[in-house]
Amino acid sequence: MRSVLAVLAVLHLCCVQASALTIVSEAAPRMVVEENGVLWGLGVDIVRELQRRTGDASPIGVYPWARAYAMAQREPGVLILPITRLPEREALFEWLDPFLSLEWIFCAVEGKAPRLASLEDARRVGSIGTYPKDAREQYLSAQGFTNLEPATDQIANIRKLLAGRIDLLATTNISLPDVRELAGPEGRRILKVLSFKTVDVGLAFSKGTDPAVVRAWREAFAAMREDGTLQALRERWFPGVFKAH
């Protein structure tokens, strides 16, 4: 009897280990923030609530976006957030429903802002600050833009924008207040000059992830939306920005 129980215990442990997730993210203001070893933000709260409902205890790892994105493409059992859902990415992941919609925008420095009436106008500026493997960079590159200038992090792009080394910065409507704050006193001079696309953002599993795990997380997310938890979390981090839907 003891030997049977021992075998069952080993099998249970193996199942748990097989279903363990690798959760990866980039640092993003008010979404995933790492401060003194503590993680906080909307994305963190959503993941932890989903973990509570599914019984998962995997830690969230914060990496440069290019590394997190690569991990989610080459390894099974990876959950990545926050990730923009685009047609060219559709077949690459197992998607959960989005937890927010946002606008992609170009911003510039007051007094130096080029006149933009459409996305086409942005092709003619000298340079646009982006991030490697970022959805905005991928989208603009697919549109044939050749004036993209990627930087390793947001601070580098902001400094380049204020110094006049790039003409535009590609960011989002919800990130603009954080861009201004990170820029310091000069941040008030950073203005939105064009909104060029509306996108959905959420979580996705890598291909090869246990279908039972994907199904459980999808069901938990649907329940969060239905019972109002998702909207309460969005309102906590971005008051008045996102309507319930």
TrEMBL record:
PANTHER family: PERIPLASMIC SUBSTRATE BINDING PROTEIN FAMILY 3, SOLUTE-BINDING PROTEIN FAMILY 3_N-TERMINAL DOMAIN-CONTAINING PROTEIN. It comes from Fundidesulfovibrio magnetotacticus. Keywords: Signal. This is L-cystine-binding protein FliY. It holds the Pfam family SBP_bac_3. Residues 26-239 form the Solute-binding protein family 3/N-terminal domain. InterPro entries: Solute-binding_3/MltF_N (IPR001638). Residues 1-20 form the signal peptide.
